[in-house]
Amino acid sequence: MRDSAGPRGLGWLGFFGRPFHENSLTGRVVLSQTPLSVTTLFTAFLVLAFFPGAFDSPLFVAFLASQLVIMPLCFLVPWDRLPFTSFLVIPLLDFVSIGLGREGGQDSLTGLSLLAAFPVIWLCASGYYPRTSRWLSFVGPLAIIWVPLFVRGDVSGPSLARAMLIPLMLLGIGISVSVLTQSMMRQQRTLEEKDLQLQAGLEKSMQQEALLNTILDTVHTGVLAVDADGHDILMNRKQRANHTLATPPDIEDPNESQLLVFAADRTTLVPVEDRPVRRAVLGQTFTDRLVWLGAGTEQRAISTSARAMKDPDGKFSGSVIVFSDVTDLVDALAAKDDFISSVSHEFRTPLTSILGYVELMLADGPDEEQRQPLEIVQRNSERLLTLVSDLLASRNGQLLVKPDAVDVADLVRASISAAQPRADASGVVLETDVPARLDARVDGPRISQVLDNLVSNAIKYSPDGGNVTVSLMQEDGFLKCQVSDTGMGMIPADQAEIFTKFFRTSNVRRTAIPGVGLGLPISKAIVEAHGGSIDVESKLGQGTTFTFRVPV
Questions:
Q1: What is the helix (H) or strand (E) element at residue 484, kind and residue range?
Q2: Residue 124 near residue 177, CB atoms below 8 Å
Q3: Per the confidence metrics, is the pTM higher than 0.70?
Q4: What is the pLDDT of residues 300-341, one digit of tens each?
Q5: What b/e string do you get for 56-91 counting C-beta neighbours within 10 Å, with b at 16 or more?
Q6: Coil, helix or strand at residue 127
Q7: Cα atoms found within 13 Å of the Cα of residue 456, Cβ hemisphere only
Q8: Does residue 271 contact residue 249 with C-beta atoms inside 8 Å?
Q9: Which distant-in-sequence residues (6+ apart) come within 8 Å of 525 by Cβ?
């Protein structure tokens, strides 16, 4: 009876064919009155069959007549237009009607007073005015019994006490119903509050889901989430396009093994067990796995990465795979390699000619004054030719060394001698700390190339002058060489990238110091080809020290 009124009932079948709370207010009033009306009907049949004399009593007839009036009243009164608790007048009228029936028919049927249980239950189950309802559950039945006694003047202790059992019993029923109703109402309020919270949580979840889907459909990266069984959980717009790209033209809904997923050569199909999605379903984690999707001119290079998901127990529950289109980057790298290859080949021919003519001039036996410049030209031309070869090797990923017995101290002195003119022009003081001789089995021209790169960089990145020191020693079976300067220095972020091909520090880019960013990567490759290592220590504005070690 708590809910506000909806549309009025559509008839008796509508009342009884729906759950109680889904009926209109009129329907609920009718349903609440029905048990008493039905019981009254059965009572009339019993009295008519076995005690027809009761119909001679005006009070009993008034009881039946009042019940016949109350039921249509329940149906016809527009309760939804009256104050909401107006319907509680019906159980109060029932008390009066039952009082008439008890007084008029008690000689025929005993226990008519118990019919008061129906309005008691109605009042206490309504949930309104609980204290008043409990009092009425006692006072109403008591009045049904006591009022006739007072009217007849039979007011004695025994007569009044004799009638107390039924009111007390109905009071107990009323209290029980009232407590149960209040408990159910509290539970209902709790459930309604939780329902509101759930609805709010659901609405927030739906908003977050919509936001996530919008974000995922906005980014230019394919995102796919799969569960532990490999079933798709989430796929954004870009990944749907990737899937369409990898779909063979003659298969409408291909499985993983039928998709066009190729290796780096763009022609070899990747085995199913090595495909990104399959590896992710197996719980593997990987980064930047390159594959090609599709075929022909529409083929695209895709970099894939996957991360596994775990449930609260730490068990594998699925994976998220990211697909990044790197076709433009791959094409750019290929174009860069082609450019390096073309330029290197173009350099090789004139350098070979220069070296040939220098060798002819040296073969003619020039005097000492002419020989020294020619040897410098020859040495630097050979070095430049080696650099060209290194460019080609860096493109092909190869760099070979040919170790031989070499006096590394002499290589250091030769590198310092070749760099001296440039150091003088830049106001840089070159200093050495090398032994008279230090033999090691290394590739002499390659180690000279490393020394020249490091010394040249030290001078180049000391634009305001300063000191450059080259030290050489043998330490724990390794040849250790350090090239230190007091120049520009680097920030930590630049130090982490200094050996990356074509990388140039932010300071260098701002000062427009020439260079292509290949010297240090090639030097690192040479040292590592010898089985050694190279590292750097630097502080911005205080200078830089490069240290390389190779086995003696």
A1: strand 478-485
A2: yes
A3: no
A4: 999 999 999 988 888 999 999 999 998 888 888 777 767 777
A5: ebebbbbbbebbeebbebbbebebbeeeeeebbebb
A6: coil
A7: 18
A8: no
A9: 390, 394, 399
